Amino acid sequence: MKFISYFTLSFITTAVVFYAQVFLLFPVPVAADYWVREMLVIKRDLSKSLGDRRKIVVAAGSNVLFNIDTNQLTEALGLPAINFGLMAGLPLDTILRETDAIVRSGDVLVLALEQDYYCREKNPGFNEWQIRNAIAWDHNYWRNMGFLQQLRALTDLNPLFPIELIQAKIGLLRNDPILTPRLLALDDGEVLNKYYHPSGPPDNLYSIYNIDHHGNIKNSNETSFTGTASFRADLPIPICPQAIASLGSFIARLKSKNVLVFFINGPFMDLPDLDKQKLAQADEDFIRQIAPLAPILDNRQEILVPRDSFLNSEMHLNIKGRDHRTQILILRLRDQLKLY
Amino acid sequence: MLFNSYPFIFIFLPVTFIGMFMIGRLSQRVAIWWMGLASLIFYAYWSAYFVLLLLSSVVFNYLTAHWIRRFNPIKQRVGINIPLILGLLANLGLLIYFKYSNFFLSNLYSLLGMHYAALDIILPLGISFFTFTQLAFLVDISLGETTEKSFGKYLLFVTFFPHLIAGPLMHHKQMMPQFANRENFRLNRINISLGLTIFTLGLAKKIFIADNFSHIADPLFTAAHSSNTFQFFEAWAGALAYTLQLYFDFSAYSEMAIGLSLLFNIRMPLNFNSPYKSQSMIDFWQRWHMSLTKYIGEYLYTPITVWFMRLSMNLSGTAEVTYTLVIPTLITFVIVGLWHGANWTFLAFGTLHGMYLVCNHIWRKFRRHRGWFKNSIAFPIFSCLLTYISAVFAFVIFRSEQMSDAWRIQEAMLGFNGISLPTTLRDLLPGLAAWESEGKLAFDGIFPNIAFSMPNFAILGLLVVGHVIIWCLPNIHQITYGYLIVSQDIALGRSLSKKISPSKFFATLRWKPNAIWGISLGILFFLIIISMAVYKPAPFLYYQF
Question: ipTM for the complex?
Answer without folding.
Answer: 0.81
